Please model this.
Amino acid sequence: MSNAVNFNIDGLKATVEGKEILKGVTLNIKGGEVHAVMGPNGTGKSTLASALMGHPKYEVTAGSVTLNGEDVLEMEVDERARAGLFLAMQYPSEISGVTNSDFLRSAINARRGEGNEISLIKFIRQMESKMKELEMNPEFAHRYLNEGFSGGEKKRNEILQMMLLDPRLVILDEVDSGLDIDALRIVAQGINASRSEDRGFLIITHYQRLLDYIKPDFVHVMMQGRIVKSGGPELAERLESDGYDWIKEELGIVDETVGQEA
Ligand SMILES: Nc1ncnc2c1ncn2[C@@H]1O[C@H](COP(=O)(O)OP(=O)(O)OP(=O)(O)O)[C@@H](O)[C@H]1O
Ligand SMILES: [Mg+2]
Model:
């Protein structure tokens, strides 16, 4: 059986509370590829991530999303996870009363499907080995999910989930924010170790420094709900030194707020 991944977003439009945020996003991600998405605040990057995962707040009004030809937009959130979509959220939620290890085990079992559950021994062995790789204190297995975790601890925990779930398409939304210098390196190593031909990555970030560790194949710039420019790693380097104004000038993009000035 081929493990090839072909994730295709075509002309995706989405609204939040009646306001159009995504205005036609087109992007193709294949297995083995890392795509970085950068862009100013409030341009729709997290909205894209949420819409792809099927968050009910975001209404898709046009376009298509397919994973290996299967219609993702038709799927419920849990079906998307089972199909292999994974999102590390910009702001991971806390769930009181559910331990991290219980959460991880049910997430793995949901992904594997009924009748194919992971044995407890195997689960614990995998969890402990991945936690070690991420240099996480073993006590985090028994704490309630994200409750009282520091910002950086939450981010590391998201990567632990990713490593255990073996997804086909990984979306990481600002996974580098809040990480200290050592944690950034450890998390990046975890992500690099997960790179493979049967997995594609969409990495949303503001800073070149993450991309120093995780070399992207493609870098895309998102503005006003669209991908307005794509290139290689050199594009991220240019953004780091020059910001976004040159792209706006090149493309004749006018800030929405500018029009409101007297
Ligand atoms: N649930 C929501 N209710 C109202 N507005 C929303 C909601 N979600 C997103 N928006 C609006 O959509 C726009 C895009 O938000 P989004 O979070 O996608 O931006 P972003 O590109 O991820 O920004 P950042 O770089 O700051 O994380 C913003 O103006 C935001 O206020
Ligand atoms: Mg965001």
In short: Residues 45-46, 90, 173 surround magnesium ion (ligand 2) (CB under 6 Å). Residues 258-262 have pLDDT under 50 and may be disordered. The first helix runs from residue 45 to 53.
